[in-house]
Amino acid sequence: MGTALLWFELLSLIVAIINYRYLKGSNLVWFIPFLVLTNIQEWGSHFGLYSHNGSNGLSINIFTTIEFLFYSWLFYKEIKNRSFKKIIISATPLLIIAIVTNVFFIQGLHTMHTYTFLPGSVLMVCFIFLYFYDLFLHDQVVSLSKNPMFWICTGLLFYYPGMFCVYAFFHAVSTEMAEEYGKIYILMANIFNIILYSCFTIAFLCRRWKSIS
Question: Exposure pattern of 76-102 as b/e (b: 16+ CB <10 Å)?
Answer without folding.
Answer: bebbeeeebbebbeeebeebbebbeeb
